[in-house]
């Protein structure tokens, strides 16, 4: 049994406090260094990395392009969050919270910054009138699930994922606590998807694009190597939904944008076809 931790009366930050992200964790906000962000030729400039939160946005952009909406062409710039690039002065200017993804739309004046993944999804869906239901009830249902994801996924990522996969030592209490919660969330999704093809009903929407990179990846065995531990086969309707999205060409393209430095949209399109995407 681990020795009990007794919190001090006043918490003090200890740099390099252990764990995979210790080198970039700190208790203050703002820029740590001066660096301008690059800018490409398209009105939409995306600064991100292919984490689940980043993939949400690239899936939507690729789906918009698949519809033939050429105004959704974008430049994707890799932000290496493990090296602290999200704390540059340029990035902080478009997202003071220093989290990916972040975007600037230069098609409007003044240029519009957009940060937080749900905000970007909503902004783009509204801008191009696509992947968001127009009927009031269905639109509300879409927003219900969009914000469900924003409230629930931190318990999957920062809770379960951190303590199961990244913490410097395995501690039963947080792993058990967050495993219970993640399985409850999967059951919420499973019961809903038993009755519906997609999250907002029968219409594929930004709610699916927000939830799939987290929970779809989880049940498909791509997140934290935890599929067996969580017994994901217990959620057949989530698996059915996850597999249905996984074969969409735009989803496959969206998964690989911003995986490595310099992987712009155009280069990815040239190098990959729907048949050879991972």
Automatic annotation (TrEMBL):
Protein name, per record: GST-like protein
PROSITE patterns assigned: GST_CTER, GST_NTER
Gene3D superfamilies linked to this entry: 1.20.1050.10, Glutaredoxin
NCBIfam families: PRK11752.1
Pfam families named in the record: GST_C_2, GST_N
UniProt source species: Allopseudospirillum japonicum
Annotated GST C-terminal domain residues: 138-264
Domain annotation GST N-terminal: ranges: 45-132
